[in-house]
Amino acid sequence: MFIDDIRVIDIPKIQDNRGNLSAIEKDILPFTFKRVYYLYDIPSGAYRGGHAHKEQLEFLIALSGSFDVKLEDKLGNKKLVRLNRPNKGLLIPNMIWRELENFSSGAVCLVIASDVYQESDYIRGIEDFK
Ligand code: TYD
Questions:
Q1: Is 88 touching ligand 1 by the criterion CB < 6 Å?
Q2: What is the pTM (predicted TM-score) of this model?
Q3: CA-to-CA distance for 4 and 110, rounded, in angstroms?
Q4: 51-107 tens-digit pLDDT
Q5: How far is the CA of 70 from the centre of ligand 1 (A)?
Q6: 38 lines ligand 1 (CB under 6 A)
Q7: 69 forms bridges with which residues in the sheet?
Q8: Taking the alpha carbons of 4, 94, 88, 15 in that order, is the dihedral positive or negative?
Q9: Whose CA is nearest to atom 13 of ligand 1?
Q10: Angstrom distance (rounded) from CA 48 to CA 71
Q11: Buried-state track 59-92, b at ≥16 Cβ within 10 A, e below 16
Q12: Which of 35, 51, 85, 88 is catalytic?
């Protein structure tokens, strides 16, 4: 997959005077998910990611705060996406290199993944990826 296959997807927001509610169901994601994990208590200056997945797709949401996602495909095309709203998610197809950085204080990154955790699905070296 390539840089143009990366998408920011709007998650519907139900808003009233008690606050907002967003739900992810039906056809919002182009995959069925098997795992949810989240990054939190992230120290200032931390760098995460630094890998691509062979098969898995992931959908990232800044549930709180903000962070940058640097993306690269195997042709070397690059994209930077800043996530800072709980009702926007970043769809990262398989075979896209990603790096997460510039986390704000209190940032929480929710990740919805198409499969369970399998180290064999990771490419952790940028040279291997290219
Ligand atoms: P890592 O891939 O370095 O996290 P990130 O992509 O956010 O930088 O994973 C950190 C550790 O957690 C590593 O030992 C693998 C483990 N891990 C799991 O056990 N289950 C999971 O679902 C994930 C994503 C990671």
A1: no
A2: 0.97
A3: 22
A4: 999 999 999 999 999 999 999 999 999 999 999 999 999 999 999 999 999 999 999
A5: 18
A6: no
A7: 81, 100
A8: positive
A9: 119
A10: 12
A11: bbbbbebbbebbbbbeeeeeeebebebbbbbbbb
A12: 51
